[in-house]
Amino acid sequence: MTTRPRASLGRILQDLGSTVLDVAAAPGDLDAEVTGVHIYDPHDEPMVAPGGIVLAVGVRGADGVRALLERAPRAAGIVVKLPVEVDERVRAAVTETGVAVLGLTRAASWSQVAALLRSLLAEGDLDGPEDEPQGDLFSLANAVCALLDAPVTIEDRSSRVLAFSGRQDEADPGRVETVLGRQVPERYRRMLDERGALKELYQSRDPIHIELPADMLDRAAVAVRSGDEILGSIWAAVGEPLTEQRQRALADAAKIVALRLLRDRAGADAQRRLRADLLSTVLAGGTGAAEAAGRLGIATQRLCVLAAQLTDQQEGDPARGESDRQRFCDALALHVATIHPKAAAALVGSVAYAVLPLTAGPEDEEARAVRIAQDFLARVGPRHPANIGVGRLAGTLAQASRSRADADRALRVLRARGTSGQAAGYTDVHFESLLLQVADVAGAEEQTPTGPYQRLLEHDREHGSELAATLRAYLDAFGDVNAASARVHVHANTFRYRLKRLVEISGLDLSDPEARLTVMLQMRIFGP
């Protein structure tokens, strides 16, 4: 094994294979170094760093390709959905700029490709010159492919594709869909589960052979273990059962992959902790904020803080809960990175914080940030039910801590409402947030309700009545007895009697606006 070469166009094409990307026009060799992935927006000025890959969403025809080449002359390549029209003017522009034009299969979504390319570029980021030359998962997948003479995928315990070998175009459509989506489709996973293949795989320490329907190649698979812990699995698309020699090779490969996964997991955990510490320093403000922002490479002006939290926390399974929170944070980081290259996100405790730079525009910055948060929640949908609080715009890095506090307060309001899948800006929930803060002060000072509201609560406790609920319904309905009685599911006459009783017991003057405001605030601060 050798260490993974730098991220070049040639290496990326070799990893992905012609199933996903193909070369439509190239200036020569494909040795250009790739530094990042950028989403093209025709309405914005391209901000493509040297060596970036531009995903040309919506670009069609030779004129569109040529115009983009002229707008992004420092890119390593541009990616256009097939079929790609290439004429003499496009070839001339490719030669002049040195930017390659790549064709993307129509079966792939842009979000999948963006995630796929970023994951390939991230491979080996933690490697240093002192690291052992163990290679990476893609190199391992290619090595196993050569040993077995079959296309290979390496997957984690949840059937997400961690790496894959070349020659995937020799496999069946199910494998191609798996590689493009970086996840085994649910229908295939369900089929394997119904056949008992997954149970057999995770119970066996030796490779197994799995027979599949006639329109698919069979699979040879082995679990990747660390002691009794299942780390993942290796899958090969084969035309016939493996020979004994190749079974031994697959079993040996599983041991090497296990070592690599353990090493990557330790490195990834360390990197995540570092990013979380740096982002926490930025959000706390102070003297170290500027240095931390520089190390993260994030913007220091005109930024907004987002605070996102899952609403279905896994209380019974801490490991599962932590994994879900980390995947949610990774998804948020990817989302904000597509908005601005100097955005960043990290998990701090149970909350995923994102620092989102915002350029001046016709739309209010906070409203735009809320819309971005809503778009993200719509994308993750039922897989990650969550709420997001959005802080006010911070003109400088010194104001980032204020924006973070705003985001925390907005998130708390959403949590207090018991909602899920909602995003709210701080200014939209300002008063509710203030009431929660007042409730905190009252609780810390052990303050309790007083006056008419206190007398109602005491009467309800002693007699099992519901006079406080009757009063709340009356006030919420603006004094409309019919609407209020329907809300508490009693007859209007019964409601009027209760209303008369609560006035007698509490001494509350419902005709006095100041008295109504006082009792309404006590209800919000102290609760029922």
TrEMBL record:
Residues 467-525 form the PucR C-terminal helix-turn-helix domain. It comes from the Bacteria. Residues 289-413 form the CdaR GGDEF-like domain. InterPro entries: CdaR-like_regulators (IPR051448), CdaR_GGDEF (IPR041522), PucR_C-HTH_dom (IPR025736), PucR_C-HTH_sf (IPR042070). Belongs to the CdaR family. This is Helix-turn-helix domain-containing protein. It comes from Nonomuraea ferruginea. The lineage of its organism: Bacteria, Bacillati, Actinomycetota, Actinomycetes, Streptosporangiales.
